[in-house]
Design the sequence.
């Protein structure tokens, strides 16, 4: 995620996936199976618009598939059933990718910045990802109107902050799936107090996609049942 400081070089930006080594790869197509078309539609739109709209930096055009789309898709096995709320969705990661992969799931994208909200609305319309609802606001402000069985977040805040902001959005048996990379275990350790306060337990899981790509780490938090 960047600001819009790249705008003066608009003409030099390729705005396609052509420099991404995974573009056109059979492995990627097989990984997504029947949903590849929609996921690819979103990846193409992100390549076309992402830098101009300040959603990704120009260097990301060479790694949209690995760094953004597959990294988001890696959480799919840890989600379980139900409504998913992606907090701080920004470019639509991971929420829009999951919505494209799982057309029967209801996905709510929560994002406070107006121009990113506009992007999310346009992207869902243009690519035909119809199972998303976009809500403008900060996680702490939408407690009255948003509830999910699963909360996801990527590059939004530390685990302890996310617990504080998002535990009130969680259905009673719900869980959070947070994309965290290398800091996962440290952040989970630092979130001990918040976990206790909200009666949650946490674990770090490794999330892989294609053979040969480095797996990422996910912090999965579950609510303990009330006694
Ligand atoms: C670094 S971007 C990451 C966006 C996207 N998840 C990704 O991985 O590309 C962080 C996003 O979180 C949003 N954000 C910041 N504070 C938030 C809050 N309290 N509640 C919801 N979203 C928030 C920002 O507006 C921004 O779009």
Sequence:
């Amino acid at each position: 995620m960047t600001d819009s400081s790249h705008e003066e070089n608009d003409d030099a930006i390729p705005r396609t996936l052509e420099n991404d080594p995974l573009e056109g790869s059979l492995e990627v197509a097989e990984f997504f199976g029947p949903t590849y078309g929609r996921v690819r539609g979103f990846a193409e739109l992100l390549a076309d618009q992402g830098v101009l709209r300040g959603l990704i930096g120009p260097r990301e055009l060479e790694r949209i598939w690995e760094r953004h789309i597959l990294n988001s898709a890696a959480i799919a096995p840890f989600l379980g059933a139900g409504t998913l709320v992606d907090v701080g969705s920004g470019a639509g990661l991971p929420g829009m990718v999951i919505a494209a992969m799982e057309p029967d799931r209801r996905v709510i994208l929560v994002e406070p910045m107006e121009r990113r909200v506009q992007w999310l609305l346009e992207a869902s319309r243009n690519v035909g990802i119809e199972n998303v609802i976009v809500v403008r606001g900060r996680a702490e402000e939408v407690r009255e109107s948003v509830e999910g069985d699963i909360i996801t977040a990527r590059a939004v805040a530390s685990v302890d902050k996310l617990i504080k902001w998002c535990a009130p959005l969680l259905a009673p048996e719900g869980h959070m799936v947070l994309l965290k990379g290398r800091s996962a275990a440290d952040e989970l350790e630092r979130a001990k107090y918040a976990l206790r306060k909200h009666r949650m337990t946490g674990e770090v899981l490794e999330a892989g996609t294609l053979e040969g790509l480095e797996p990422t780490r996910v912090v999965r938090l579950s609510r303990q049942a009330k006694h």
In short: The longest strand covers residues 170-179. The domain at 77-223 is CATH 3.40.50.150 (Rossmann fold). Confidence is low (pLDDT under 50) at residues 1-8.
